[in-house]
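Notes to self after the call with IL:
- keep both proteins in one doc
- input above output, always
- annotate only the second one for now

Protein 1:
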Amino acid sequence: MTERAEGLRNVIVSDSKLSHVDGEAGQLIYRGYPIEELAEKVSFEEAAYLLWHGYLPTKVDLQDLKASFRLTRPLEDPMKKVLRTLPKGAQPMSLLRTAVSAAGLLDQKADRANENVTLEVCERMTAKAASIVAAQWRLRIDEDIIEPHAKLDHAANFLYMLNGVEPTELQAKVFDVCLVLHMDHGFNASTFAGRVTASTLSDIYSSVTTAIGTLRGRLHGGANTAVMEMLQEIERPERAEAYVKDLLAKKQRVMGFGHAVYKVIDPRAVILRRLARELADSSGQTKWIDMCDTIENVMTQEKGICCNVDFYSGPVYHMLGIHSLLFTPIFAMSRIVGYTAHILEQYRNNKIIRPKCQYVGDVDRTFVPIKER
């Protein structure tokens, strides 16, 4: 009998130069750089360039990438028509999945992507994803779509297109770091799903659509939404300790804790904890981070379980004025950089991904003619 691993746990299926996750040491590395250094020193655009090219951009390289984003960020009229046609009350991740698929129909180079995919396609998809997420939300709340700002970078532009107000320097910086932190994370379920599709030599839009559809699942994306719902239910910091202990007594899950890979604290959570405190002190919305502090202390003392990136990203997004329904689409619009980088890597050294399964059904059954059934 062939040895197997449920859910492919600890099975190495391919090599990658993009990111490394060390769950024992609590490390996340993009292209050789620890996430702590990148979060502190580079922008979203620089981190995207790093994943796509393998090295950090020069000033000219960065200017060229920002120019590409500015050029491709506006949505074409056909895409706006698609977004207006879709049910505005639909799940935002479903809208994003469908819109990315539609974008493949509007991109004349999409069908040739598997033969001669270029970074131009990756840049265009990344730029437009942010515009799509912002636009579909504006339509959902019966507001006009806001065109991109000509002078704002990627993170700040999204907040502007979403709310119609230029973010403060701190808000833009915090959101920029959030996007960097979510950009890639090894062979997670959605990234692997995208690579499976790419391995058939399907086009890059189909591959990314597959990945987004996988991220939509409640066991993958969406945990930060659940964290925010929990905090809103707790409502006040003084209620947090009793609330969590009650959940533990009932053997119910406390959202934002535990991780499939990390055995110690998620390094991204450490960064977001600090940023959440800065944002809370600046905005006066300290109750959210105060609740988080209490919950984290209880979970550490009672269960010895560390928090993950979702625990702090939820309240950070909330303090930035972002509705919880958009938390997972924001995850996706950042992770598209990682998806496309992985898809390119798959194309360059492709072998179709085709694992075996073990048949455990019936054998040697006697066929009964339809007249005798």
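Protein 2 (the one to annotate):
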Amino acid sequence: MDLSARLDDLSSHLETFDPNPEEVPVFIGLDGYIDKIQKVVQAQDGQSRLYYPTIDTFAKRIERAAGLSAQLELVSQEVKLGGNAPIMAHALASLGVLNYCLGNFGSPVIDPLFEQIHSQSKLISLGAPAETNALEFDDGKLILSEVSPFQTIDWNFVKETVGMANLTRYCNSTKFIALVDWCNLPLATDVWRGISQELIPQLTNSPRHFFFDLADPTKKSQTAIEEVLEVIGSFSKYGTVTLGLNENEARRLAKTIEIQTGKSAGDELNEVCLFIYEHTNLTNLLVHPLNRSIIVSPQGIQAIPGQVVAKPRISTGGGDNLNAGFCFGQLAGYSLEDSALLGMATSGAYVQNGKSPSRSELIFYLQNWKNNL
């Protein structure tokens, strides 16, 4: 891969691509949080604070507190709208893509925090938002979430709250349907199955793209993961199916499939990706460790190099911005490789600058990436 030439081409294409302003091409669901982005204080001298730099150093402090207790100071950096669905929706809207976003944004009125979402995202609320404390470190983040508002959200609840006629209207105009944050909605599998069995067959303009992101499935049972993979595969009757995973999520899924099949995935990440793809009914698998993306498709497996942000301003939401950039690339008709590059660039710009990039900001990031090669 000539990475420099690819980045140049992407910049040029982004300048000329113009989505139809009459279309709402993406439907995204379904979660919604109020996020507190926080750092953990390691030491304090007067008004000056030193924060725990890594998860490892913080973990050692937690370990020392075993049997003794401890009090830890948190400093909020920002309070913002959160959730895989609204962050992805906001990122797509920032790139110029109109979308519908289904989730928990407030009841009976939209919470003021969610009114900050880009005007090209049309919110459809199911109830009160959940809450998250995101503890950020230089090498990652710890997401601590209170998700009780999601406890009652099954497919019947969605149909009764939104209305089947409205759901059909929202989705009938779309080219892309993204379903995310499976792990934090106890009844998400029921919702996704209902969409596959009852909603998608009613839509007229098919085939279309389907994108899935499970979020961290570590807490889910073997049976639950097997079941949701089967449901995801059922969408392949209606179009292209892509599953997006980070490295931790990919390895967790591989363990599940190992137990299910009695076969070994291997240790190398490329082997893990191929193993997942061979045992699921996917069109594409997108796996994004910190420094690259790996795509498995009917054409085989390919690794696309990325760029690590040296001093991240924010990390919570980086994966959602990557998903948005990838989906934008697919909507624009780019190759899987270029879509992955666009996803990593969208995420990189977000992590570096603390906000989802506009089209011009994304082009600027791509050019800087090229110049730094």
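Annotation: The chain has one domain: 3-38+81-371. The longest helix spans residues 336-353.
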